[in-house]
Amino acid sequence: MKVAIVGAGKLGTKVATTLLDGNHAVTLIDTNAEVLQKVGSHVDVMTVNANAKETKVLKNIGISNFDFLITTTGNDETNIVIAAFAKKLGCERVLARVTDPEHMQQLQFIKDLMSIDYIVNPDLGITVEIYKYLAEKYTLSNGIFSSGKISLLEFQVDKYKQLIDLPIHRFSEVLPHMLVVGISRNGKVIIPHGDDVIKANDFLYVVGEKEPIQELNKKVHVRGKYTDLQKVMIMGGGKTGFYLAQMLSEFGAAVKIIEKKRERCYYLSTHLNDVMVLHGDATDLNLLEEENMDGMDAVVTTTGFDEDNLLLALTAKMHGVEDVIAKVSRTSYAEIISRMGIDMALNPQDITTSTILRLVQGKKKVLSSQLIQGQAEIMEIIATPTMKFLDIPLKNLNLPRGLIIAAIHRGHEVIIPNGDTAIKTDDRVMILSLLSDISNTEKFLNDSGKLGFFR
What we know:
The protein is an alpha/beta fold. It has helices spanning 10-21, 33-40, 55-60, 76-88, 101-104, 107-114, 122-135, 171-174, 210-220, 239-251, 262-271, 285-290, 306-318, 334-338, 348-361, 438-445, and strands spanning 2-6, 25-30, 46-49, 68-71, 93-97, 118-120, 144-147, 150-156, 179-185, 188-190, 203-209, 231-235, 254-259, 275-279, 298-301, 323-327, 344-346, 366-372, 376-382, 403-410, 413-415, 428-434. The protein has 3 domains: 2-120, Rossmann fold; 231-346, 3-Layer(aba) Sandwich (Rossmann fold), CATH 3.40.50; 354-445, Regulator of K+ conductance, C-terminal domain (Alpha-Beta Plaits), CATH 3.30.70.1450.
């Protein structure tokens, strides 16, 4: 598939790199020659130093022969215009990154008027994941994700104490014909391996046939744990803070936003109903004590700086706040986060990249997908005849550490896999993969056939 990406920032570069791992032909367009040179020295992507708002640039690269164009610059209007130009010039499908709340209020009108196929909003994407976590502890619908005869259940291990301190390779002794495919521990989702040990307070993601999973769900799923969410403090009044305050206020929570910029405070106070907006520095401990941070049910840090978000999240956790969530864009901080005791840390780039990939791929091979705590993705694919991992026992595959084969539909048969299981042509395969390792996942799923896996 031929894909053009406009904007060589963090998101554009991540999307380009991941698509290359999926064996797509990618052209990256940006006005900054230095940035393009840096990207081009690390990844095998065609770069074009030009302004894509000029239709001659789009014509010169042959945009009418492209399957997809994605605009990821930092300017909404630029993204919308370029996507509309590309569509008019014959590009099959176009996607624009749009973040401003004013645009989101008239999204369908913009799409219809400008003939844009898809619009993604990184700030809204991460907000939805935070909201799901706070408003309902279970990030899946009623704790269960189902596809055909297979279901995936999320629950806290404390609800099934026989599993505490149990090595993963002995899990089936307690719950036969089921498989642990993910563990959420200290705010981080991990893919478990045989020698890993289940710990108290872990959240488990368990796969099995639908009926046994539903029976287990009756024993472990406590409904409405978070329906009494009352007080939330948001540190940072940017777009993510805005969207989250709006959602939580409508949910019925009392929300406080602390924002450093006076003009932004004015915008927030005039555009949000029933939300307290405070002008101040969230790193000021005296201010946090005055505003009763200790009495909050949840604290969410959404400033524009990862370091501030982590420091503020750690401060909130040390003050005994039950749920603390941080917005963190740097993947290099992943290991630090897992040791800090933060309940959840989300990367908007990972979430948005996953969303864009699924839109690019369509549903011809990826039948369904759903995010898990904003850090992992459960998806179901069809095994095509030219996949490189067919008919090989899973124990002999060099699976990425961020990926696990969760279950297989083979005709009317349901298979909970072990090391001797091999995937066969036309199997419907359920996979759980970490968003932070999405490039390796795409590389693993790459089809060796002439048409390519996602073409």
